[in-house]
Amino acid sequence: MKGIIFVLHGRKNKLSTTNMALIEQVASQLTCSYEIGLLEGEQQTLEDAMHSLLAKQLEEIVFLPILLFPATHAKEDLPKRADEVLAGQLPYRILDTLGTTQAVSDYLIQQVEQAELKGDVLLIAHGTPHYEAPYQQLCQVAQRVAAATGRAVHPAHYHGEHLYQDILTQQPEPLIVQRLFLAEGYLAKKITNDIRERRGTMDEILPTLQDQPALEAAIKERLGEV
Question: N or C: which end of the chain has fewer CB within 10 A?
Fold first, then answer.
């Protein structure tokens, strides 16, 4: 029997509840044991989740990162902490992050097709200066959306290289802005405010994935792999 750990980013100062109900809804449909573990904060931690599953008769632990792209949390923090706690007591594997699921691409395509504007698309993800894979995957997603919608899609980051501000400078015409974030949190709102300060209300800013059925579909798609 497998055990599933849904790995969320979390918050340092208080329990993160964003998307929690959605994940609980998906998890409740499983026939195996599961836990939710947060990478940050002191409540409902990743370590708590692992210790809970270690106490059960399991053959394997499967980590499902509820993250969009494979940066430091997925590539470094998660395997390091898994090795420290599990210490060879139980095999484990880490599933891919959610950004490249068909569910996410389908959601973005639908968002663009339903947008009021008919111009180019600016697709903004978090970004990182440490890994190339997040931007490579973002470009793949952008290509899928462009092929399906017939729009030019400009992939960009909030952090690191390929910054979205450069695209704003290069594209004076109104843009459809899709912030590819799991939550309408601090960074997503900061991006919105920055764009509004720079360009007024000319651009159409679309919702994040927070509490969207597409997020549930992406999680189920990854779970289908195991």
Answer: N
Angle between helices 213-223 and 102-114 (to 10 degrees): 160
Separation of alpha carbons 44 and 46, rounded Å: 7
CB neighbourhood size of 83 (10 A): 11
- pTM over the 0.90 mark: yes
d(CA 179, CA 76): 25
Give CA–CA dist 12/43, Å, rounded: 9
* Residues 6, 23 contacting (CB under 8 angstroms): yes
Strand-pair category, 2-10 with 153-157: unpaired
3-state secondary structure of 162: coil
Spatial contact of 54 and 89, defined as CB atoms under 8 Å apart: yes
- The span from the CA of 7 to the CA of 144, in Å, is 27
The whole-angstrom separation of Cα 62 and Cα 70 is 16
The Cα–Cα gap between 76 and 56 comes to 26
In this predicted model, what pLDDT tens digit does every residue of 19-69 receive, in sequence order?
A: 888 899 999 999 999 999 999 888 889 999 999 999 998 999 999 999 999
Residue carrying structure tokens 């007591």: 89
Q: What share of the chain is helix, strand, coil (3-state, %, to 5)?
A: 40, 20, 40
